[in-house]
Amino acid sequence: MINLKKHLSLNQDQFEDILVYFSKSLLGKKDEEAILWDLAKNCISKLGFIDCVIYLIDQKNKSLVQKAAYGAKNPKDYLVYNPVEIKLGEGITGSVAVSGKAEIIYDTSKDPRYIVDDDKRLSEITVPITTDNVIYGVIDCEHPDKGFFTNQHLKMLSAIASICAIKIKSVRDTNALLKEQQNLLQLKEEMLDLKLRVFKSQMNPHFVFNALNAIQYFIVSENKKTALQYLSVFSKLIRFYLTHLEKETVDLTEEITMLNWYLKLQKLRYNNTFDYSISFNQKSSKHLKVKIPSFVLQTLFENLIEHAIHNQHKNQTINIIFEINPSNIIVNIHYNYTTEIIDKIRYTPEYRKQIVQCLDLIRSVNRIKKYKIKKKVIPILNTKKNIFGNKITLTLPNIE
Asked: What angle, 0 to 180 degrees and rounded to 10, lies between the N-to-C axes of helices 151-202 and 32-42?
């Protein structure tokens, strides 16, 4: 071991050997605490100091936490004896952690900031572990004699702290990148699962078999024109589902075409129990070259139709108006109906189990893709305060 006596310094070659050794020892380390313990046991110890504690900043709690030590605070193994936390700005270490400027205290008895840890010592040197204007922690060394630490010590510790900071930054950047990649992979898996759920909903046996039965019924009834029309629309709809299964966005024009097919098919399927219209506000018709998230619009109408049929609504009309803005697309839906049983409750649909609920889909897409899709439902009341329709507003992002 190299010993450093009071006011004597290592020669340049010896110090450079320590830096080279420390730099090489850090190459394979991917854990911050391993870096700090290597700094304490294999670097600080070679400088001849008798006491050293290394802190990392805990940003959440705004404090310094003792992570590694050499001397009295490290009696054995890789343990810090009675570790303490110091609030940022408190004490000498806390002040350096905030200012980012190293300090040498020649007589701690005259510095009111001095905090006694395990024992009172008269000299202290504190150096920030910092790089690129980011402070990760501090190296704090103490000595029982007054005036022990020199500017030479300061230069040594500053160089060592700089190497340590660069390595910590590298480890954190690598870990952040890995975490981002893992999150991205998880989100992709969740998005794929969501797509499959929606596709399964769109292609549920109830819908497919009923569509085929409807075609068969029209053929048997010798209504060949309607059968061919139904079959044509059904095949286009299936082709659309298959084509867009892997896509996360869709052209608004394509989505509106699909929506028209879907509503036309459902109208035929349910014997013209509802009428619908699709229109645009005056400015929107000139700006249809936009993209919106896939699945959402059709899932909303799938829910709406299934809810209406389930509750046996009569005289249904669905008027859809698209409003295209620079940042979003607003879909205003005026849905009116009559019922034989007066509906005394608010809009609380109970969809069939195999149908993906629109609100669940919106929550999932918003969480996965960070969109801000919103759905708002306002009941339309008659003079007797009974619900006979709903105004539904769907706000979708205008995706570039």
From this structure: 160
pLDDT, one tens digit per residue, over 239-249 is: 888 887 778 88
| The residue to which tokens 């969740």 are assigned | 190
CB crowding 122-148: b at 16 or more within 10 Å, else e: bbbbbbbbbbeeebbbbbbbbbeeeeb
Per-residue pLDDT of 77-95, as tens digits, reads 777 878 888 999 999 999 9
C-alpha 117/C-alpha 228 separation (Å) is: 88
Residue with tokens 């409750």: 345
Q: What is the pTM of this model?
A: 0.58
Q: What distance lies between CA 280 and its chain's CA centroid? A: 35
Q: Could you please report the per-residue DSSP string of 272-333?
A: T-EEEEEEE-TTGGG----EEESSHHHHHHHHHHHHHHHTT-EEEEEEEEEEE-SSEEEEEE
Cα–Cα distance for residue pair 297/240, rounded to 1 Å: 14
Decide: helix, strand or coil at residue 223.
coil
